[in-house]
Amino acid sequence: MISWRKHYKRGLIAIGLLLSTSASIYAQGDAKNGEKLFKANCTACHALDKQLVGPALGGIVDLIKKEQNLDTDWLHKWIKDNKALRASGDKYANEIFEKFNKTEMTAFPNLTDQEIDDILAYTSNPPAPEPAAEATGAGAADTNSVAALEAAKMQSMNSKIILLSLLAIGGLLIWLLLKLKQLVKLQQTDELTGLNATRAVSFGDLYRKYDYIGKGILVLLGIFAAYGLWNWLMWIGVYKGYKPEQPIYFSHKIHAGENKIDCQLCHSSAKYGKVSEIPSMNVCMNCHRTISEYNGKYMEPGKDKAFYDGEIQKIYAATGWDPSSQKYTGKTQPVEWTRIHNMPDFVYFNHAQHVVAGEQAILNSYNQKNPNAKIDVVCKACHGQVDTMNVVQMANDFTMGWCIECHRTTEVDMNNGYNKEYFKNLHDKLKKQYGSGAKITVDAIGGLECGKCHY
Fold first, then answer.
1. Per-residue confidence (pLDDT) for residue 132, from 0 to 100
2. Same structural domain, 304 and 433
3. pLDDT computed for residue 317 by the predictor
4. What residues contact 1, with CB distance under 8 A and at least 6 apart?
5. What is the pLDDT of residue 248?
6. What's the chain's Rg over C-alpha atoms?
7. How far apart are CA 281 and CA 68, in angstroms?
8. Same structural domain for residues 329 and 344?
9. pLDDT at 130
10. What pLDDT does residue 10 have?
11. CB of 119 within 8 A of CB of 42?
12. Domain containing 61 — which CATH number?
């Protein structure tokens, strides 16, 4: 009996020590701060609930304790400098390195021990999402749905009001015509009746009698027809507002607006080349290799999380990416994007010339002309407020006249390094021609020469 009590007490002491140890591990870190640190440093390669580039980290403290009998000190060493840990001959560190295709994890020597404890606390006991934030997101979605419904009702009501108004106006006109006809009949006398009998009653007789009026009308109709044809010809190829449906839905508002992704991260050749190319799917995979679902707060009316998640799966199908094994299968599906902006073959336009050499001049000119809609990125001067567009559309006419107007009103920064060197011998000539304090616009340095755009 004494022996049994002795072992019983020892068991309670052991359980107490184990519980206190576990509690102390989690108590050391602040899970809320750990969540911020995890999102800032770890989400590129890790998630809590699934494998990405690296293993799932949910419950990692208990896992390595159970499977490898390792404590948080080992995790500290691994996070701060896993390369040094592997070089020391640590068996488990090298096993992980081999298991994940010898992908070397980024070292984080800048993280303090307390910050690492915060991250580990988050992986062990992630805080529940704040109800207020969820309610806000749901409320926003509900508000959008209600607003869309109210707008549809209002539009339907307006259409009915307009239709009823037109019917009322039509009825009033018919009533007036009937009344006028009655008045004419009342005022007709025998003398007027006899006079009316002698008047021309056929269209041919009427035309011969007033042929000069008919010829004048025909001339006017010919002029209007010629103008209409000329106007139609002038607008061939002008597609302002054009926004085709794409094979994979891509919201610039989410990427460039909500997430503040720079235009040139995807359209990198706009700065250094003639054409701003459509990014390859590999560019998308730089981020979406680890972002397999949409968790943003913004929802476009009529869209939901399932819709956005489905579009991400289309990216995986196009690139042949298997998210479960985190490997490319080699089975790709080319994406047939519909091009929106496309200059004619006889027009030369160099993106780099505008984005680099003309950047500040274009920004200054645009913001002076549009003080209530200033822009911070030179791309918006031509392509509009892309960061507010769910579906990108052609924001301007892109006609020859539109370009010439810009060249005539955009002042050249003659003091920047490029212009100062390139137009070194032109400065004196421009000062003599336009005056020392004159505003030098792009047309003054050859911006209206035919050969600059049509070669």
1. 37
2. no
3. 95
4. none
5. 96
6. 37
7. 40
8. no
9. 60
10. 55
11. yes
12. 1.10.760.10
In 10 A of CB 60, how many CB atoms?
18
Phi, psi (degrees; rounded to nearest 5) at 416: -75, 160
CB atoms under 10 Å from CB of 270, counted, come to 20
- In which domain, by residue range, is 103 found? 21-124
**Two tokens, residue 29:** 């870190």
Sign of the Cα torsion 268, 270, 273, 277 reads positive
Q: Which amino acid would we find at residue 44?
A: A
Number of structural domains, the chain? 4
State the pLDDT at residue 139: 43
Same domain, 40 and 156: no
Q: Is residue 235 part of a domain?
A: no
Q: What is the pLDDT of residue 236?
A: 85
pLDDT of residue 259: 92
Residues 382 and 434 in one domain: yes
Query: Tell me, what's the pLDDT at 145?
Result: 47
Same domain, yes or no: 257 and 373? yes
Inside any domain, residue 119? yes
Query: What type of residue is 108?
Result: F
pLDDT < 70 positions in the chain = 1-28, 129-156, 184-207
332 and 342 in one domain? no
Residue 342's pLDDT is what? 87
Q: 240-246, long-range: CB within 8 Å, 24+ apart, which pairs? A: 240/394, 240/395, 240/396, 240/397, 240/398, 241/393, 241/394, 242/340, 242/393, 242/394, 243/340, 243/391, 243/392, 243/393, 243/394, 244/338, 244/340, 245/338, 245/391, 246/337, 246/338, 246/391
Structure tokens at 203: 């269209």
Q: Which long-range contacts (CB under 8 A, 24 or more apart) does 400-409 make?
A: 403/453, 404/443, 404/448, 406/365, 406/442, 407/441, 407/442, 407/443, 407/447, 407/448, 408/441, 408/442, 408/443, 408/447, 408/448, 409/365, 409/369, 409/441
Tell me, what's the pLDDT at 387? 93
**What pLDDT, on a 0 to 100 scale, did the predictor assign at position 201?**
56
Same domain, 264 and 396: yes
Helix (H, G, I), strand (E, B) or coil at 207: helix
In this structure, what token pair is assigned to residue 53?
């580039």
Q: Residue 349, Cβ neighbours under 10 Å: how many?
A: 15
Tokens of 362: 């274009």
Among 47, 54, 72, residue whose Cα is nearest residue 62: 72
Whole-angstrom Cα distance, residue 174 to residue 188? Answer: 21
C-alpha span between 395 and 239 (Å, rounded): 9
- State how far the Cα of 108 lies from the Cα of 231, in Å rounded to an integer: 65
Q: Name the β-bridge partners of 441.
A: 411
Residue 230 maps to a domain:
no
Helix and strand numbers, DSSP H then E, in the chain:
22, 2
Q: What is the rounded distance in angstroms from the CA atom of residue 122 to the CA atom of residue 36?
A: 9
Same domain assignment for residues 73 and 167: no
